[in-house]
Predict the 3D structure of the following.
Amino acid sequence: MRHLNLPSLLLAAFLGSTSHVSAQQAPGQSGTGTGRPSDGQPARPGLLQRSVTQEPGRSPASGNPPPTLSPGADAPQSPVSTPASQPQPATPQAAPPPAAPVRPTTNQQTPPTQLPPAATREAAPRQLPPAIPPAQPGTAAPVPPEMAECTADSSRGSLEACGKVIQTRRVPRDVLVMAHVNRAQARVSQNDVDGALADLGEAIRLDPRNAAAMTVRARIYAQRNDVDRALADLASAIGFDTTATAALRERAAIHQRRGRIEEALSDLDEAITRDPLDGAARLLRAQIRVQRNNLDGALRDLDEVIRLDRDNLVAYAERADIHIARGDRARAVLDVTEAIRLAPRNAQLIALRGQLNRELGRNDQANADLDAAITASPNDAALRLTRARASWQRGNAAQAVTDLDVVLRGNANNAEALRLRGLAQARLNNADRAIADLTQAIGRNQRDAEVYVARGEAYQRRNQRQNAIADFQAALQVDASNQRAREGLRRLGINN
């Protein structure tokens, strides 16, 4: 978020990730986006600097079984579709990662729009959302046995099974449409976007009013920045299905990215009017309201999203962001703690809570969080450097050196790490090591009096009198009031 002005503890760790937050479904909605960061993966820029995916071994955040279209579900209907006992076309969702096998449910909708990280949403293009659960045919329709694997969560197996269903063509039309849509999703997970578009085009040819396939195709077009085609598909989908909300969410996301905020809010308002339990629409509306500095409205939306789905990490993160913007660190800690509940081994979430606890004066909790974060991600240079600073301030030079060794193994030219390790080595009376690090630090900054003094003291321990005098005098040229430099010169018999 643009309002945060926290230290740069987490910036580098999160910006390297390319995946994005997926919005959450409210109970009763379809979709597999979890809004959780995978353990050990970075969170997002800004507050959590999130890169959020489902944690291994966890069910979708909504807590509901993954959905499928079944007879009587609120799926887009074609005037030439088969009777209600026949299966309906696949619900659109985004591409990878592959979804788990699905179970029949009712009142289905397409999954939530993929949301960009809050801190980068003004600039970053929206990414494809996570994969939708494959559509499954109704039990009343005669379907080939391969259709079971076509709806499975293995993208490679799904590709082969769906291909067999499509090749036979001795299936009801709606089953064939589902096979094309499911194969399209599997192809996107394999980075075969052209193949996915071909499948979706065939699904729409077979069922020209299939709003689900149009919405999925629109997402791919939007990902390719083919906005005109994406908007055309979404307009058709919205016209064909006046009850589902996924196409409205997708169009709102495109409007947001293009800076058409009023149009985005209009689509989201309509989506929420159609389905007040659409947590994904509320979440995106909350993010847009934050952009407009309508924090009260954003909080209302986020409170409702969390009421609908207690496992929605994205909503907790957005709400914590707002609390930080308002200076309410205590409430922010509560929301970040909920995020950690959903991703207990995510180092950046734990480190962020430690940062907030430190700002609240809870130093013991802050130190414990920082230790836990490094245990979860032992090679994270940013976290190691942060703990080294804290250890130095507490007088624990040995711990500082241990952490700085890790930092410098990853980047031997890190100026701050060289300076701080040199100072710590000097405090530990490791004169030769201190001189080596401090000399490199001085090469990068000749205006640091403390470094000159520390190297001068190290030279003095090594009985290198002239070098020590030169460093103490250099320190006084930078800072004429430096008492340690004056004392060093007096010890060497120099009056200054």
The longest helix spans residues 173-189. Residues 1-133 have pLDDT under 50 and may be disordered.
